[in-house]
């Protein structure tokens, strides 16, 4: 319980400092520009499919910026002082993570509010909005957990390169396939295909969640996709906390 309390207060403190410093102006300006370019009232009502696909991509892109900024603030020498006051490594990292989520989810909420007031979605009620929002928010949480794992204070450079190489291999289907794959020796081609299948499996909930966010269709097996997203978030975040706890503490800032 003490760990949860310390995490909460450190996240609240970090969020307050982030807002007070004015860094959030970048996210606010980006949200305003995105609304003006993509979501303001047109001659035709905006469809839910367009909103959730466009808002999903924008929110993920904005999350990358917010995560890089907040985690860079945590990767400074002042962190030694904070950790020395019995905060603990897990609450420290989770506090930074929750700060990113608060800002990213908050900007998405602002965007939704602007659209709901000025240009409501065509044939979409509150329930449809919630059904489209849940997997989108979980994808933001998953991306934030992955970026937290890749921060220099959590993983060393060789391990970050290894993780990125595995992700690149999982996405290599569009780069290594067809004639390129057939030109390789059969054992190499089979091994590459097996590794690609195994590594791409954890990414399936994220891509399926994005599709469900656009379609809002939870029939059949789609109903368990948000649960899979949530467990994937917990798994990646737990690995990040474990790696941060085991690594020699060296802040780069």
Automatic annotation (TrEMBL):
<feature type="transmembrane region" description="Helical">
    <location>
        <begin position="94"/>
        <end position="117"/>
    </location>
</feature>
<feature type="transmembrane region" description="Helical">
    <location>
        <begin position="50"/>
        <end position="73"/>
    </location>
</feature>
<feature type="transmembrane region" description="Helical">
    <location>
        <begin position="194"/>
        <end position="212"/>
    </location>
</feature>
<feature type="transmembrane region" description="Helical">
    <location>
        <begin position="161"/>
        <end position="182"/>
    </location>
</feature>
<feature type="transmembrane region" description="Helical">
    <location>
        <begin position="224"/>
        <end position="245"/>
    </location>
</feature>
<feature type="transmembrane region" description="Helical">
    <location>
        <begin position="129"/>
        <end position="149"/>
    </location>
</feature>
<feature type="transmembrane region" description="Helical">
    <location>
        <begin position="21"/>
        <end position="38"/>
    </location>
</feature>
<keyword id="KW-0812">Transmembrane</keyword>
<protein>
    <recommendedName>
        <fullName>ABC-2 type transporter</fullName>
    </recommendedName>
</protein>
<keyword id="KW-1133">Transmembrane helix</keyword>
<keyword id="KW-0472">Membrane</keyword>
